[in-house]
Amino acid sequence: MRIKSIFLSLLLLTALSAGAQKYITKTGYIKFYSASPLEKIEAHNRQVNSVLDLATGGFVFKVLMKSFEFEKALMQEHFNENYVESDKYPTATFVGKVINIKDVNALKDGIYDVNVEGKLTLHGVSQDVKEKGTFEMKQGKFIGKAKFNIAVGDYKITIPGNVGNNISKTIEVTVDITLDKANM
């Protein structure tokens, strides 16, 4: 796991060092939502790191799992200790690219539909993902938004039988980030 963190940090630094075509945030936002017949669970994380390379479409996320905040402290404790095992798997990452980056005009305010592909690593498991989202170019910043679902079983997250009806097997993930031009 330490090697993955070092690799991702080097990837982020490399992405930043290339200059003016890079956009970055350390305060992105991710929400996840689980709706089941017995309970609705929602968590928010406002410490999401991300880098976008306009020249290549390269797109990277790093999320500290312990930064998710829940309405109830007990939910947060169970999430970190029992489900995502944050001490063992402290981060979730996405390494991929915006496939249609050439359709995005960084010089013109507007909303652009984007297609993103890459590897999402969560709970020590990597899965290929393809999702749709939008980039809004507004006053020199990129505002990225997406909403998609992940199956917890795909990432070997086990839901104990005694709470199986409390947690959905599919989690809705909402991403909302504002990327600023990297100053080099």
Description of the molecule:
It contains two helices and nine strands; from the N terminus they run αββββαβββββ. The chain is mainly β. It has one domain: Beta Barrel (Lipocalin). Strand 7 and strand 8 form a beta hairpin. The longest helix is centred in the N-terminal third of the chain and has 16 residues. The chain is elongated. About 4% of the residues have low confidence.
Describe what is shown at a glance.
With 184 residues, this protein is mainly beta.
Cα(first) to Cα(last) distance is 30 Å
User: What's the shape?
Assistant: elongated
- SSE pattern, N- to C-terminal: HEEEEHEEEEE
- Mean pLDDT comes to 89
Q: Count of helical segments?
A: 2
State the CATH topology.
Answer: Lipocalin
In the predicted model, the low-confidence regions spanning at least 5 consecutive residues are 13-19
What is the CATH C level class, in words? Mainly Beta
How many domain units? 1
Helix percentage: 10-25%
Count of distinct strands: 9
Widest sheet: strand order? Answer: 1-2-3-5-6-7-8-9
Main beta sheet: strand number and arrangement?
Answer: 8 strands, antiparallel, barrel
The name of the CATH architecture is Beta Barrel
Q: What Rg is obtained from the alpha carbons, in whole angstroms?
A: 17 Å
Q: What structural category arises from helix and sheet content?
A: mainly beta
Strand content: over 45%
In CATH, the homologous superfamily goes by the name Lipid/polyisoprenoid-binding, YceI-like
